[in-house]
Amino acid sequence: MNEQVKLSQEKMEKCLKSLDHELSTVRAGRANPSILDKVMVDYYGTPTPIQQMAAVSVSEARNLIIQPWDITQLKAIEKAILASDIGITPTNDGKVLRLCFPQPTEERRKELVKMVKKYGEEAKVTIRNIRRDALDKLKTMKKNSEITEDDMKNIEKDVQKITDKFCDNIDSVIADKEKEIMSI
């Protein structure tokens, strides 16, 4: 009957990966190419991610360089970045775009920490929902006499253990990101 525990654990791992991806898009003062993941460029009528149209590299700690493979798309990429919510104006030199990340203010760092904590709370809610769904399935199975009372209690304990483990993981990931943001 451990398939219910395994299924719950897989879902919780996906939730943690999703949180990691979400946190990687939070601009913490350092140049990080993943900040452009959500920016889509209108490439001949098709929304296309920048990473599929250009080489994105970090030249210095606070500078990103975007070098399009098709130089005619430089303006379209610049327009997409300006329209996005990343809050940085690119510098266009005719061949590449440069994004210079400013040092965040104390107020901005506090905003980022709040946002990171919100992402962590949302992830924990998702983890708890996965636990609730697993326990509901167990109760249904018990009701249909597919499992015994003892099996149900043991599986509930296992599901609770992995839930606690993933909530602790989320707390440590959030704490690490908070330290990173505040130490900029």
Can you tell me about this structure?
With 184 residues, this protein is α+β, with helices and mostly antiparallel strands. 57% of the residues lie in helices and 15% in strands. It has helices at residues 3-24, 74-83, 106-143, 149-182, and strands spanning 40-43, 46-49, 54-60, 63-68, 91-92, 97-100. Strand 1 (40-43) and strand 2 form a beta hairpin. The mean pLDDT is 87.
Features:
4-stranded antiparallel beta sheet; 15% strand; 184 residues; 4 helices; two-stranded antiparallel sheet; alpha+beta
Report the total helices: 4
Which strands sit side by side, in order, in the main sheet? 3-4-6-5
In terms of DSSP E residues, the strand content is 5-15%
* Estimated structural class: alpha+beta
User: What does the overall shape look like?
Assistant: elongated
The largest sheet, given as strand count, sense and whether it forms a barrel, is:
4 strands, antiparallel
Give the topology string: H per helix, E per strand. Answer: HEEEEHEEHH
Gap from first CA to last CA: 48 Å
Number of strands: 6
Radius of gyration: 22 Å
Low-confidence stretches: none
> What's the average pLDDT?
87
Helix share bin: 55-70%
